[in-house]
Every structure is written in C-alpha cells, then in structure tokens.
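in:
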C-alpha cells in the first residue's frame, strides 16, 4: 500500500521534474516563502506562484540541484557520505536517531532530522519535510545500522534477534517504498546505494542476527534493482569491512579484537590483503562516486570495500 500523502509529494516531484527539464539541469524547488540569502530562478523555471526554484550554491558541481537522503548519517560512514554529497553540491536530508544530526552541517542544503527509523509515522513526516524543502529525491543511501555484541545462536534470544532486524532491515523497506515515486521522477534518474557489510560475503561466528540482517538487506537491494530498472533507477550495494573511525568500533572493542588475534591495534587495523587502513572518509567518497556518472550503467552490483579479503575473493 502506498502512503496516504503520496499524491501531494508526487505533484511536487513532478513540478520539479518539469522545472528541471525547462532549465536543462536538475534544480531544487521549495514550497512557501523564498529564503533570505538564497537566489531564485523562477522566470526561467516557469513554476506556479508560491513555488521557488533555488539557484545552485556551488555552480557546476557534479550534484548541483540534486537531492539525497541518507539514513544514519550522524556518525561514521553515513556522516562521511553526507559530507561527500554536500561537497558535490547536493542537498542532503539526513535521518538519524542521534540528536546531533540536526545541526551537523552549516548550509541551507542540509536538513538533519532526528528520527527513529523504526517509527513509520515519523518517516512519513520526514519525507514530507524533505519534499517541501527541496522538491524531490535523486539519491538514497541506506546506511543506518547497529552491530550488537557477539552472541552465539544457542544463546540468542528472540528479542535481540527482532531488535536487530527491526533496525538493520525493516526500515530499509519502509524508506525504499516511500522513495520510489520520488526517485522515479528524478531528472537524471534515481540512484540508491545500500551499505551492507562484508559479513554478507564472509559471515562471522557470534553475529547471526547482524549477518542475517545484512544478507537480507542486500537481497532487498537486488530485488529493487530488478524491479526499478524499468524506471531508470539503479541500486548497488557496498560491503565495507573494518572501518574503525565509526560509532560501532569503540576503543575497547578494537583492543579486544586485536588481542584476540595476538596483534597490536595498528597491526589489526591493517589486517587485509593490501595491508591498508580503511576510513569512513574513503567509504563516503566511494559511495558518492557510485551515485555519480561513473556508475551510470551499473545496477545490482555488490562491491567489497575491505582492502582485499581471502574469505571474500
Ligand atoms: N564500521 C564498519 O566497520 C562497518 C563495516 C561494515 C558495515 N558497516 C555498516 O555501516 C553502517 C554505518 O555504521 P558505522 O560503522 O558508520 O557506525 P555508526 O554507529 O557510526 O553509524 C550508525 C548510525 O546509525 C544510526 N542509527 C542506529 N539506529 C538507528 C535508528 N533506529 N534510527 C535512526 N538512526 C539509527 C546511529 O545513530 C548512527 O549515527 C551500518 O549499517 C553498519 O552495519 C560498518
């Protein structure tokens, strides 16, 4: 079933598509009042009164006039993705349960919304706010997730299993469902990147709920790639591993894992075939590139970002 407010959002996304075609490039539109300090281009865009086309803040940037939604971008990989997209001129809606999300970046192209992604009604409001503020959606990055403490199958309670699925899996369907009619009306076609995990390709003992949730979200992304190709929307997956400058890796966990392998923390951080340390900035740039023209003809792909792993290769 489609959300009840679908038609209003689609009307706005269609206004934006028409304005973008008229101007020959993607443009953001805003409902209501123009904003102090933001130039508008209404004559050329031919929009109804009360709707404003916003001039690019960074002219000729690769994502100027485009709009992205990122989940879980208050910290770690998601935050780096948001930064890379803002640097490329996109407007970014960032949905995160961490209140820090609201003031994270100081530009009018940033809209941080504090939200528990498991709350369907809050998701409706967030999408409405996003469309009213920027006019639609071109790019989606499904990133939010938790990594629970290691528990083996025989000790894992159903409550813990359901909690991991409720955060790492279910909201991704809710977000995809709401995003589809908007991505379908993206001037340069919609793009989605799903941040899964190396655990999909090489699962870890003690991580059955996490590994299963990430395998399921990968499968969700693959089905979306199949179903949405006809709409020009491409959906690709990344499988990062051991990105240590993020919220899921505390100093204590890092030290414990290094000790488990009889390594120093520095050795442990480079425990991959290339012997490199992967940081969230690298993954953020990687994801931004996947949303750009280099991946124009790629959909349904899964790319490990792990420095090379003999368990994956
Ligand atoms: N760091 C790694 O080594 C690594 C490896 C593979 C995959 N991943 C995946 O990358 C993604 C990002 O993780 P990270 O490592 O940057 O960790 P992180 O903890 O820094 O970021 C996760 C973000 O998700 C948000 N979040 C969690 N539950 C939420 C909810 N219910 N509603 C809204 N937001 C919620 C958190 O507040 C946080 O900002 C996760 O899906 C994780 O599984 C990380």
């Amino acid at each position: 079933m489609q959300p009840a407010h679908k038609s209003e959002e689609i009307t706005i996304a269609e206004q934006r598509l028409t304005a973008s075609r008229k101007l020959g490039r993607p443009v953001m539109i805003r409902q209501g009042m123009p904003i102090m300090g933001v130039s508008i281009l209404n004559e050329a865009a031919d929009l109804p009164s009360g709707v404003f086309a916003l001039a690019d803040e960074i002219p000729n940037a690769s994502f100027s006039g485009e709009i992205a939604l990122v989940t879980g971008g208050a910290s770690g990989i998601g935050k780096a993705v948001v930064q890379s997209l803002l640097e490329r001129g996109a407007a970014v809606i960032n949905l995160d349960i961490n209140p820090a999300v609201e003031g994270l970046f100081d530009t009018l192209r940033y809209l941080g919304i504090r939200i528990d992604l498991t709350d369907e009604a809050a998701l409706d409001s967030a999408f409405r706010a996003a469309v009213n503020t920027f006019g639609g959606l071109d790019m989606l990055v499904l990133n939010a997730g938790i990594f629970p403490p290691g528990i083996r199958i025989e000790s894992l309670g159903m409550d813990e299993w359901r909690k991991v699925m409720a955060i790492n899996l279910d909201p991704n369907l809710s977000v995809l469902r709401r995003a589809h009619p908007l991505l379908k009306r993206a001037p340069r076609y919609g793009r989605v990147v799903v941040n899964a995990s190396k655990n999909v390709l090489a699962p870890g003992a003690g991580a059955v709920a996490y590994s299963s949730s990430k395998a399921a979200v990968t499968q969700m992304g693959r089905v979306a790639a199949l179903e949405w190709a006809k709409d020009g929307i491409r959906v690709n997956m990344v499988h990062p591993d051991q990105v240590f400058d993020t919220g899921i890796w505390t100093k204590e966990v890092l030290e414990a894992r290094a000790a488990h392998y009889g390594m120093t923390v520095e050795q442990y951080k480079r425990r991959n075939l290339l012997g490199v340390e992967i940081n969230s900035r690298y993954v953020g740039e990687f994801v931004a590139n996947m949303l750009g023209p280099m991946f124009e003809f790629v959909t349904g792909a899964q790319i490990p970002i792990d420095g090379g792993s003999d368990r994956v290769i």
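note: DSSP finds eleven helices and nine strands in the chain.
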